[in-house]
Write a structure and sequence with these properties.
mainly alpha, Endonuclease Iii, domain 2, Endonuclease III, domain 1, about 55% helix, binds iron/sulfur cluster
Length: about 220
């Protein structure tokens, strides 16, 4: 493909990802919660952390810190202790500040207001809105950057996540309806198939991929 616009292929890729995602959906507990606070907490916990490591910590938070008010009333020591296995302890400070800021308020359902909250950046806001709040947003994390780089054959570096072209391609592939299913499909595909050592023989979008030959026998 080797181009910065996918043309008519974008919607075909979206459909393939959605179809694959339905059959390969990863049933993490935060994906079925109705608790918006805990959904936002999950997206913050998942930054730079494997989902498998997040499961026991998130389950504990569901039992112990199920609202911002409950968290604020809990000893900071016990909050920090619960987070220890995840590392990146600075996230606990953000979560405590986030709880203080939110209190009994509803979580904002637009990106600009959401990103004013402590610990909520571009990825967390897009993931929260599209997966838990029925707002269309495309998601771009390091796995998605790697996937789009392989699809297009365009080399990327540490700054690519913020570049206009990759955001435009991610947006082009994110459907107007079905964006939630698509985003879950992309997260699961880039985590389990188009991973560091990709499993191209199992890939639903291999026929559109500029890097398929390069990786086919890996
Ligand atoms: S064909 Fe391989 S490299 Fe290309 S998107 Fe699929 S898994 Fe990734």
């Amino acid at each position: 493909m080797n181009q910065r616009h996918l043309g008519g292929k974008a919607s075909e890729i979206s459909h393939r990802v959605i179809g694959w995602g339905r059959n390969n959906f990863q049933r993490y507990p935060w994906r079925s919660t109705d608790n918006h606070w805990l959904a936002l907490v999950a997206e913050i916990m998942l930054q730079r952390t494997r989902a498998a490591a997040v499961i026991p910590v998130w389950n504990y938070w569901e039992q112990s810190f199920s609202t911002p008010q409950v968290l604020m009333a809990s000893p900071h020591q016990s909050i920090r202790e619960s987070f220890k296995s995840l590392g990146l302890g600075w996230r606990v400070d953000f979560l405590i500040k986030l709880a203080e800021k939110l209190g009994a308020r509803e979580i904002p359902e637009n990106k600009a207001d959401l990103m004013k909250l402590p610990g909520v950046g571009d990825y967390v806001s897009s993931a929260y809105l599209s997966l838990h709040a029925e707002v269309r947003e495309s998601i771009v994390d390091s796995n998605v950057v790697r996937w789009i780089s392989r699809l297009t054959g365009i080399k990327v570096d540490g700054e690519t996540r913020r570049s206009k072209w990759i955001r435009e391609l991610a947006d082009e592939m994110t459907p107007v309806t079905g964006y939630r299913e698509y985003n879950y499909g992309v997260l699961d595909l880039t985590m389990t198939v188009c991973k560091a050592r990709p499993l191209c023989a199992r890939c639903p979008v291999a026929e559109y991929c500029a890097s398929r030959q390069q990786f086919y026998d890996v």
